Amino acid sequence: MSIKENLLRIKESLPQDVHLVAVSKTKPIPDLQEAYEAGQRIFGENKIQEMSQKWESLPKDIEWHMIGHVQRNKVKYMAEFVSLIHGVDSLKLLIEINKQAIKHNRIIACLLQIHIGQEDSKFGLDKKGLIELLNNPIFITLKNIQIKGLMGMASFTNNKEQVKEEFKTLKNTFLLTKKILPNIDVLSMGMSGDYPIAIAEGSTMVRIGSSIFGNRNYT
Ligand SMILES: *Cc1c(COP(=O)(O)O)cnc(C)c1O
Fold first, then answer.
1. Whole-number Å distance between alpha carbons of 219 and 83
2. Structural domain for 118, as ranges
3. Which of 8, 13, 67, 137 has the most CB atoms less than 10 A away?
């Protein structure tokens, strides 16, 4: 199957109000070009430098989403163009994003990443950390960032019940957050292996890589 065929098949299977982020990390520019020509406009990357290079070479109507862990000292390289930062999990990082957004006279949209999976390696806030962040007096002073919603990654497991419970937890955390930030409307959850479960549990944005572009080769 070609990238175009994969993309169109997946798009057809998504409800109308669920946004598709085509996760193109590690993939060469011609692969992204093919997806672009098939109508895809939202791409997700997890390395800031790689995303910047792709942004420079590809059409400017693409929305670039940073879906990986963000190091504070690299925010400056994407502040000019990034459309949505999915992996924000600290006030320190938000302060830096706000600072860089001011330099570019922009408001940068962010999602707060919530830890829902069992793996220790996965980044994200727990419920306590989330509440503390939202109630920190500095948080409301950050005028050049806009929190659009939450993001999370389920455990990497074949246990569908577990994955479902983790997505349910994230949805509940989303509803809780919405009481404090009534305008949030993005719930970024679901990848190639689990997006149908995520959608059933209320996802509004899925991040799909290998089912579109094929397996990644990290060597
Ligand atoms: C790589 C990645 C994805 C996409 O994974 P696939 O299994 O290839 O669909 C989604 N979200 C994040 C945060 C990722 O790093």
1. 29
2. 3-213
3. 67
